[in-house]
Amino acid sequence: MNSMVAFLPLLIVMGAFMFFASRRQKRAMQATIDLHESLRVGDRVHTTSGLAATITGITDDDVDLEIAPGVVTTWMKLAIRDKIEPEDFAAEAAVEQATEDA
Question: Transmembrane stretches, by residue range (predicted)?
Fold first, then answer.
């Protein structure tokens, strides 16, 4: 009986850790689902491999990404990491232009 009381704080700490880890994972998964549901044709996105592209078509599981003018590739939706917001796109375009000018 006394040895079980000694393990009680350890069990409580482990239970709390598992509870909070589970909540964090659920939030991250919901954020990914929300991102994939919000994708629209014309959105600029980053893939998990770091590619920046524009969405030209969407199906249930796949997206068509234009990676260069006239070059369209098909990717799984799960490969989309995030959207590039318009202000991020302007900064990215300025860096590309400066690189081209050099």
Answer: 6-22
Alpha-carbon distances of 16 from 8, 12, 13, rounded to whole Å: 12, 6, 5
Claim to verify: residue 25 and residue 50 sit in the same structural domain? no
27-72 pLDDT tens trace = 988 998 899 899 999 999 999 999 999 999 999 899 999 999 999 9
- Quote the CA–CA distance of 24 and 98 in Å, as a whole number: 40
Residues in the chain: 102
Beta-bridge mates of residue 68: 71
CA quadruple 16, 19, 20, 21: dihedral positive or negative?
positive
Of 23, 31, 75, whose CA–CA distance to 53 is shortest?
Answer: 75
**Residue 102 and residue 67: Cα distance in Å, rounded?**
22
Domain that holds residue 92: 40-101
